[in-house]
Write the structure tokens for this entry.
Amino acid sequence: MSQRVVYEDSNFILKYNPFETPWYILYTKGEYKEFSHMPKDQREYIFEYLYIIEKAILEYFKPTKINIASFGNYYPKVHWHIIARFENDSFFPESVWGQKQRSSIISLPPLEPFEIKLTKELKECCI
Amino acid sequence: MSQRVVYEDSNFILKYNPFETPWYILYTKGEYKEFSHMPKDQREYIFEYLYIIEKAILEYFKPTKINIASFGNYYPKVHWHIIARFENDSFFPESVWGQKQRSSIISLPPLEPFEIKLTKELKECCI
């Protein structure tokens, strides 16, 4: 399965990354290799968006922990991962880029109502 | 080697995490499990600090890429990793939590002048 667009505006695209737990990636449309290369207003958007996405994931999926990361070693253009982690997921407490700990199937509520609400919140936030 | 305090103010502590490349960790002093649990002003400080630290690392060490992450699966209290990555470091292009790719020794300029300048910038920024 490939990534699926959940939300888009003039500066950002949010995609769902198929995984056993909710994993979203916030991509910048501008050609910025590093976070500090971005203009201040776009950096502020990112943190407001991360806040909204994290809060929505916590409320709806009730994960054990949220993991946030911005690497870009393979794809050197700013993008941020926001991942819901559960204590019984396949990698916990390691990062999802770490060593697999077990084989898990996580039972989750449907994504669609979550993404409808999240999209609405992102739209209302800052555009 | 254990972590070493580089900077501290009323809300945050910045530590150097001994590694083959520059790795700093920004800890919150408040008891916040998740980023979105923090008050808005402290979230804003974090992003201003991450910006300053990233910019300083890029200028001084000239790494291939900056990696930023906030997990907290082992230690569920908000802290952010800021790591300089080089294309010939032991893990690149994997994350430093991933599979080791090779054994490397990275040649770096001394930390002390960098940390003196960084501390000054953090102090002048927001306190």
Remarks:
- The first strand of chain B starts at residue 4 and ends at 8.
- Strands of chain B lie at 4-8, 12-16, 23-28, 65-70, 79-85.
